[in-house]
Amino acid sequence: MKVLIMYASRYGATAVIAEWIAERLTIEGWETERREAREAPSAFSGYDLVLMGSGIYANGFLPEMENFIEERKDELAEVKTAFFGTAMKTECMFVKGKAMGGVQIFEKYAALTGTCIYGEMLHGEMVYARMTDTDKKGMDYFYRMAGFSELEIAERKKPRSLMNKAEVWAFTENLVKRVMKR
């Protein structure tokens, strides 16, 4: 099996997760190629699966991954696809009656390709001090919109990593099972 892992990573966590996925697939004897969304190959022929992942910002993938999927949706419809997202919270939550986060984010991407066999959210990391001013403003807006207290906001701004190689490998093993079923 040959897998193309396309990813978009603003601060590096998603790139590390893509590396861990490739490592686990290699143990299975699969051939992998990792590329940033901006460096997509000209064609997907020869790949058994295109796995796409991104850090989650503003309830979606980073713009470069969204653009990649939108621009290449017809080609992606010709190959099996799967998705992963990297976020501090992996479950869906409701904010003012609207679903945010969780695997529901993948619905719009899966609909574009029509060939999605699996998707999962994986834990990432956040170091508020390293974030751009724009990202900080976005996080602050989200915290206020979600109704977090000042204490909760202060806790969330502390550097933290929930990245977990065992979680990533379990995702990869589930992905392998789904690819082999089809």
Count of separate DSSP helical elements: 6
Main sheet, how many strands, which sense, barrel?
6 strands, mixed
| End-to-end C-alpha gap | 13 Å
Strand content: 25-35%
Molecular shape: globular
Structural class: alpha/beta
CATH superfamily caption of the largest domain: Flavodoxin domain
Total strands: 10
Task: State the order of secondary-structure elements, H for helix, E for strand.
Answer: EHEEEHEEEHEEHHEH
Unreliable runs: none
Q: CATH class of the largest domain, please?
A: Alpha Beta
Total domain modules? 2
CATH topology of the largest domain: Rossmann fold
Q: What share of residues is helical?
A: 40-55%
Q: Indicate the radius of gyration in whole angstroms.
A: 16 Å
Q: Average pLDDT across residues?
A: 92
CATH architecture of the largest domain: 3-Layer(aba) Sandwich
What does this structure look like?
With 182 residues, the chain is of the alpha/beta class. It folds into two domains: 143 residues, 3-Layer(aba) Sandwich (Rossmann fold); 35 residues, no CATH class. Helix content is 41%, strand content 27%. The protein is built from six helices and ten strands; from the N terminus they run E-H-E-E-E-H-E-E-E-H-E-E-H-H-E-H. The strands form three sheets. Strands 1, 2, 3, 4, 5 and 8 form a six-stranded mixed β-sheet that branches. Strands 6-7 form a two-stranded antiparallel ribbon. Helix 1 links the parallel strand 1 and strand 2. Helix 1 crosses helix 6. The longest helix is centred in the C-terminal third of the chain and has 17 residues. The chain starts with a strand and ends with a helix. The relative contact order is 0.17.
